[in-house]
C-alpha cells in the first residue's frame, strides 16, 4: 500500500479489549470528559475486578486508545459504568461503533439486560443511547457533580439484548 493510498484510506478504527495496562490512558480520557475524574489507581482497581469488561477504541495505528467503554457484569445483567472519547476524537462518530461492539461483547458473555446512567443534559449521549434502543427507566436528582459545583440529574436507561 502506497503512502498516498494510506492517506486517502486511513486504517479503520479498531476496537479491542483493554486491561490494567491501559489504566493511565483511560484515566486521562476520563479526566477530559468528566468533572469528577477517576484516577489511574481507580481504573487499575476496576479493571482488576472479576466481571469488569473494557473495550478501547484505537484510531489508525495508535497503540493507545482514543476512547473506551467499561462495564460490570453481574449474572445476566451489566451496567455500563462509563463511556468516554478523547477530546480530539469527539464528534466524529466513534462512540456508536464502540458501544455497538461493547454491547455485542456483553451479549456474547451471556448478558441479557444492560443498564446505564447519563447526565440529563448530555443530549448527544442520550440521542446515541436511544438510537441503540435504550429506553428511559428512571431519573436520579442531583446525581452528577458539574464542574461549576452545581448538580445535575441522571437519566437511568436500560436495553434488553
Automatic annotation (TrEMBL):
It comes from the Bacteria. Keywords: Transferase. GO terms for molecular function: acyltransferase activity, transferring groups other than amino-acyl groups. The keyword Nucleotide-binding does not apply. PROSITE patterns: GNAT. Pfam families: Acetyltransf_1. Residues 13-161 form the N-acetyltransferase domain. The keyword 4Fe-4S does not apply. This is GNAT family N-acetyltransferase. It comes from Microvirga tunisiensis. The lineage of its organism: Bacteria, Pseudomonadati, Pseudomonadota, Alphaproteobacteria, Hyphomicrobiales.
